[in-house]
């Protein structure tokens, strides 16, 4: 059996009771280590589980998945994922590969950022399509995510922006030369994401377009959701570019039309009095 086990969002303790039972009975345990991360490392998980954990990077999961599935043909194997197992599409591919190989699989679900973001005050059923923001380079600055944000806002909906993670990535030069040299890990911050959005706003405005977002668009930055030191800030898009939310992982929500209850919740995390005033109820309370 192949088990896809969600670990939740915080530390080793966030695994479910069912998930922990699965891990402790499996003969081999893999930890997916490139689409998300917990606030603790492999050593802490091994100590709590009482099991050896094998790190599974992108190369192993996407190009050498047969190694994982080969183990699962004759024994129980656990594939651990921060958040929920199906928070990333690559894990659907692993499940399909298992089915094609005649290997049964089961899923143990857990909390993910897609549900946990509700703690910021924006109600989950008011979110539209989720988007991903990638690190720009000098020669590659995609904007497709921006247009999806505009589509959500046109319908009055909020947008959850998942921010880029670079773990065990090779530079273009290393890839071209066939060298197994990896770049240091990088994690996009809410400030970096806001800056990219703001660059698009200004570029489109300079081109004579109506950009859809402005410097004053309300956003919510969230860091380390599920951890004891999680941080949430409600700010304008311009303000968010200078907000330091600390260590990763970060996410960014672009607000759409606000329900009064949402506005009340966002006030709890207002960056300053100006933002607080924008969220103040009409009766002044």
Question: Could you walk me through the main structural features you see in this protein, from its secondary elements to its overall organization?
Answer:
With 285 residues, the protein is of the alpha/beta class. The chain has 2 domains: 2-111, Cobalt-precorrin-4 Transmethylase, domain 1; 114-278, Methyltransferase, Cobalt-precorrin-4 Transmethylase, Domain 2. It contains 12 helices and 12 strands. It has helices at 17-25, 42-49, 58-63, 65-74, 90-100, 113-116, 144-154, 172-177, 190-206, 237-240, 260-267, 273-278; strands at 2-6, 28-32, 54-56, 77-81, 105-108, 131-133, 159-163, 165-166, 186-187, 218-223, 231-236, 250-254. It has a 5-stranded parallel β-sheet with strand order 3-2-4-1-5, sandwiched between helices. The relative contact order is 0.14.
Task: Determine Rg (CA atoms, Å).
Answer: 21 Å
What is the total number of structural domains? 2
CATH-level-4 superfamily name of the largest domain: Tetrapyrrole methylase, C-terminal domain
- Which band does the percent of strand residues land in? 15-25%
Kindly report the spatial arrangement of strands forming the biggest sheet.
Answer: 3-2-4-1-5
Helical segment tally? 12
- Outline, from the CA principal axes? globular
Query: What's the average pLDDT?
Result: 90
Number of strands: 12
* Poorly predicted spans: none
Report the CATH architecture of the largest domain.
2-Layer Sandwich
The first-level CATH class of the largest domain is given as Alpha Beta
Order of helices and strands: EHEHEHHEHEHEHEEHEHEEHEHH
Fraction of residues in H or I helices? 25-40%
| CATH topology group of the largest domain | Methyltransferase, Cobalt-precorrin-4 Transmethylase, Domain 2
- Separation of the first and last Cα atoms: 57 Å
Biggest β-sheet strands, sense, barrel: 5 strands, parallel
Alpha-beta classification: alpha/beta
